[in-house]
Amino acid sequence: MRTNLKVVDNSGAKRVMCIQALKGKKGARLGDTIIASVKEAQPRGKVKKGEVVYCVVVRAAMPRGRCDGSEIKFDDNAVVLVNKQGEPIGTRVFGPVPHELRKKKLVKILTLAEHIA
Amino acid sequence: MPVPLCMKSIVASPESLGARPLSLLNDMRRPDFRHSVTGRLGPIRSITTINGPEATVTDGSATSPDITMPPRIKFKRPDKTAKHIMQILDKEAVEEVRKEREIPDIRPGYIIQMKVVVPENKRRVSVLKAIVIARRNAGLNSTFRVRRLVAGVGVEAVYPLYSPNIMEIKVLDKKKVRRAKLYYLRDKINPLKK
């Protein structure tokens, strides 16, 4: 709630603010989907300022534990805009994405990503 | 011969007053372990073998010539004994892993290249070139923190040192640092891995 996140695809938005975490009482973590409101957008993009969109968290500064005992954490909080089915609105994803997306069946974002961390 | 594995056996019962205190680790699977614990000179203070009265008497009578006085039963508190046992078990597990794989010494400030098998991917991530910024020693659960720049974004990861997923670790360079934990590197965004 109220977390400002960076958008790392080319859907037109620059910053979004989280308004609801879809799964989990304690909030969304790396790899979860959230509902967010677009706070800042590029002038000619697919989304406009003030729109309510679904997003997937691809980078989080909170460490996320993996099943083999390792942990991973990124330096910033970033998000990719998706539609309700989980397919990304944009056509490119910048920066690294974690492996956790594969388990959540968000394969399209993984294929578009530059690097899978 | 029964294998006692419960804590109750440490407490000296009245009938074992003349004999040595019972042991927790009469583990028949590892006969050599017994020797490592009982191979010290002098009476063992905490745990001994449970071989039977004839063996313990020969162990004790070698050092205490006075047979009329019963030998002093000295044994540690149960929690101290348990900690000692856990330490030994931990060291054994570490040695077992070290025998299979060669794990170099990793200290903060080293630049390492590691090959990790990612379970989600089932493929190797080679060339994980990163700088070690912290190391936590906890026996088998020793972990080390590693920081790298991936596609313009800093990524930190924590790995267990003796994890079977780490295929290989190679030390590329050693930087001179004056700290054990290099968390100040998070503020620096020098791409030259400083």
Automatic annotation (TrEMBL), chain A:
It holds the Pfam family Ribosomal_L14. SMART domains: Ribosomal_L14 (SM01374). GO terms for biological process: translation. One of its GO terms (cellular component) is mitochondrial large ribosomal subunit. It comes from the Eukaryota. Coiled coil: none annotated. Belongs to the universal ribosomal protein uL14 family. HAMAP family: Ribosomal_uL14. NCBIfam families: rplN_bact (TIGR01067). This is Ribosomal protein L14.
Automatic annotation (TrEMBL), chain B:
One of its GO terms (cellular component) is ribonucleoprotein complex. One of its GO terms (biological process) is translation. It comes from the Eukaryota. Keywords: Ribonucleoprotein, Ribosomal protein. It holds the Pfam family Ribosomal_L19. GO terms for molecular function: structural constituent of ribosome. Belongs to the bacterial ribosomal protein bL19 family. This is Ribosomal protein L19. It comes from Amborella trichopoda.
